[in-house]
Amino acid sequence: MPDDLTQVRFSVTDFPTYYIYTIQSGNFAALNHALRPFGISVMFWRVLAVLQESDGHNIGYLSGKLAIDRSNLSRIVDQMARDGLIERKTPPHDRRNVLVCLTEAGRRKVDEAYPSVLRIIESTMDGFSAEERRTLLALLKRMRNNVLQQGGR
Prior knowledge:
mainly alpha; Arc Repressor Mutant, subunit A; two-stranded antiparallel sheet; 6 helices; 2 strands
């Protein structure tokens, strides 16, 4: 490495994060377009997807799982509640904890939108073998764990 850091030259395409960001950005746009007919955004979809997998979580858990800061997530959840997709429930054993839960309308929305979402996700993985998909997922999980160990979300 040169002593004079002003002489360092590199290409952003040398870094995996460049590809991760561009893939995410393109996917976000494609998913928003695919979800528009269902009246939901990618942000709504992400919350619905987590809750359909395992329902009834507080904002803190969802914030960590979705890598969305609490204040933004709270606004998203407020809108979703107004739209009847989720509801807030307070468990009788812990009145301080408010859980975000899917409504029947939210479950229907997941069922309706899932085929469109799956088409976008599958097109992203076009040409990858099952083994390549497993390898890629394992590598991305390792990268995410590295980020978490560095204090990231």
